[in-house]
Amino acid sequence: MGGPAGPDDDALLVVRAGEGDEGAFEVLVRRHGPVLLQLAHRLLGNRADAEDAVQDSFVSAWRRLPEFRGESAFLTWMYRIVTNRCLNQLRSRRPSTDLDAIAEPAAPEHEGSPARAAESAVALGELSRALARLPPDLRACWVLRELHGLPYEDIASVVGISHSAVRGRIFRVRRYLTEAMGAWR
Amino acid sequence: MAMNTDHGPPEEDDLLPCGHTLREVWEAWDDGHVPDHPHMSRCSHCAAALDGLQVLDGYVRSARTAEADEARAAEADGSAAAGADAVAARVMEIVRLELRPGRTLPLGAPDEDGWIVEAAAAKAFRSAAETLPGVRAGSCRILPADADGTARRGPLPGGTVPRGPVSVRLQVTGDLSRPVPELAEEVRARITEAAHDDLGMDVRSVDVQVIDVFVDLAMDVSLGGSLDVHGGGDLDTGPGTALGLDAGPEARGSGSRGQGRRGGGGRLR
Questions:
Q1: Which residue in A33, A94, A98, B54 is a FRET match for B173, CA 20 to 30 A apart?
Q2: Extents of the domains making up chain B
Q3: Alpha helix ranges (H) inside chain B
Q4: Whether pLDDT at A48 is above 90
Q5: Contact A161 B64 (CB under 8 A)
């Protein structure tokens, strides 16, 4: 097979998958699975739930592909399906388990003195806990923006709110986080 | 915290002593407007407001680095790939077990009573097209046809195309190694061959639409928007082909009119 790989190639594979080409769908699953797993892990806080969410999202996408008209890129569409699935799961969780389930990032080992590394690890733990206290849909916007680098328009389409509503949410999360992190300034 | 009001009156603590709000300053920073801003680039209150954001950004960067390190470690010990692979394997297991309603098409001689699902026949035709260098196949539809090869409306998914001739409609992308009409002609030949030799399917017409032409792997130029649509005499393929380049048989010589890149897949009968 010649031709380009990438977003253009995605469109071709999406059409084929929509017509029942399982091989084309498998290429899409293997190409985009890792980043979607990362997103689900960030939103849900643990690997096992993330794998379940991504698996269910892909299966749901396969069923809906014949109706997918390509009005957005396949990956953006998958971001939407995975984000919604994660948010639904978080809403059905008890808040207490939600707080504890968020993984703390590991301390970077290579940064400066042990004391500074320890301090920075504490700060990262604090950041992670502060994020965990946010309502899931606010956190989702922030994660899509700051950790996945999505443009505001894509986040709006993923989360299903307006562009300016996304900006409003990002602002609120940042303001909240700067306050929460104030102790470490 | 109001969840869905976005440009409401600024909360009191958002208002900086200089009259700008925290949100204005942060968003200007986000958009890269602060260095050129007559006020914000000089104002100490705005600068202080940005300090907070930058401290946060520093932590977020560290968090991203820590996460990336973790991901690299997981990659090194194979656990990340194992997770993604396991998910892909489970997804594909479910997908392959699932029956998607598709059309059933007649195969072979009338007395043989052979049938094939459209997805399987389409797969064979796409593979046949992709034996050509630089060609990638996209949508492939197989419709019932009249004796002269004119495609008719197919049954709904799950239905059966009555025994008789069929018409193949295939979309491809190609490179510039040959003029588009030539490309379409080569694809058509492969489809006809596969239909006859591999499947034993009575394909009366093959409609090849070249939907994109790529210069090379690294730098592709989509010509879809600038290609002329010639003819229009056989745009009987229904909706969903707006991108397609349906050229009637009379347009087959169009490659010589352009610079060898325009023109399209004429229909072969």
A1: A33
A2: 13-76, 104-268
A3: 22-30, 44-76, 79-97, 118-129, 180-193
A4: yes
A5: no
